[in-house]
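Schema walk-through. Below, the input block comes first and the output block second. Nothing else is stored per chain. Lengths vary across the set, and this one has 577 residues.
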Amino acid sequence: MFGLEKPAGQQKPGRSGGLPKMASVGDFTVLSSSIPATKVELSVSCRNLLDRDTFSKSDPICVLYTQAIGNKEWREFGRTEVIDNTLNPDFVRKFIMDYFFEERENLRFDFYDVDSKSPNLSKHDFLGQMFCTLGEIVGSQGSRLEKSIVGIPGKKCGTVIVTAEELGCCRDSVLMQFCANKLDKKDFFGKSDPFLVFHRSNEDGSFTICHKTEVVKNTLNPVWQAFKISVRALCNGDFDRTIKVEVYDWDRDGSHDFIGEFTTSYRELSRGQSQFNVYEVINPKKKGKKKKYVNSGTVTLLSFLIETEVSFLDYIKGGYWLSFNVNLILASTGNPSQPTSLHYMNPYQLNAYGMALRAVGEIIQDYDSDKMFPALGFGARLPPDGRVSHEFALNGNPQNPYCHGIDGVMEAYYRSLKSVQLYGPTNFAPVINHVARYAASVKDGSQYFVLLIITDGVISDMAQTKESIVNASKLPMSIIIVGVGPAEFDAMEELDGDVVRISSRGRFAERDIVQFVPFRDYIDRSGNHVLSMARLAKDVLAEIPEQFLSYMRVRGIKPSPAPPPYTPPIHVLQTQI
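--- output ---
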């Protein structure tokens, strides 16, 4: 998710005159697989826990639960060790979790005073609990969250301190280069056109492809370009996990000929260029048929360089934050008191606008330091005179359009539906320009603006919107557009620059900053709105960290140093494992 490497085929070859001819990009596509989640390590400390023991202090343990999406079931994730006779434990055992920016991971920390060796928690005294999200921990200053422990009425249960640290191996990438000697000849009229395919092993013994090199044409002694791959993609952080490398002869029709294979591991590769990293390429079928078969050539590691990537979490930990801006293009979609309206205020469930707001807002708010969000509406007649406005505060206060948290935004949205008359065309340019004015004043990256636009209409000002996006692509901002309702949104796909970079009057956007999705594509068929919202959030937010990093890289902005790590007071503790 973070720090995606550029596929090797897009890197400049940097070759000398002696290298063989390379295949063109049109002949062969270099592949780097999707990268697993980064991992974070959670450390837990408590202060002033309840004392449940008569003749000594409590013997606390922390139990972490995670919540399944959809059914809200809590599942035990893990337990710390028990620490004897203390109300201020600093647990040694850590929780290591996968972290996705775009997913809301609900956590529950339960604390018990352990009275026996029974693993059954009901046999021990409950000391309280704390609820939060993983994003809330990561998004706190210094990735350190301190909250009160609750759960026992009328009692002060103390506080818990949870800190998150991104695991180092998740941030490492390796730059490797290989060559081969005396590979088998596979082409009738020439030599071979070899390329390498890398696979990492899975827990069940299967393999997942993680990289392909480029093709080197017409040679049995190829030298491939150096390529960069994250340690997560190569071995998922397990240095001893088997890595299988297959060698193929490229054919234009796609029926590539298998030359042979070998296995290695990250730990072996990390030795660098040496006799340990010269591998015999073995073809099992040939080996089984020919008694005098030795190998189908050798592959040699020429170089191995470890690079540590700057990550999204480095910036968050250093005090950078996301400024969330909500803009609803209300347009004309019928009377909100009628079920046919997309703004229908159903007392029993959220409408489509509400679901999109909550799905995205509940995740983003964890990374906004003050949780105050400007919420604006576009396209309505305002009281008392019915004048048409394309920019008004949802809370009715033009001097202070800020709402506290996503709940405050939801409240302001519903209140506005009772006081304004929906009206007007679906214009995006005023919305984008509004936020761009703020982003232009904070170019040091200390704030990164995320604009959420929810609309039910086809865009009316495409040319102006494209120009606004091209201008905004130079600023610290990203734009999420969610289309709700049955309208045809095909034209708006053009704004999402995943395939073709958006342009206006001959100028191309500096970065891809727009993500557009129609909400109807994410609605769960069984009617489970929680699943619908989770799917929407996962898709529309997945690109934000990379868009954030792309701005920082282009501007040469480095993360600020993180605050000094939390050092708990020293206590004399006896630890029971």
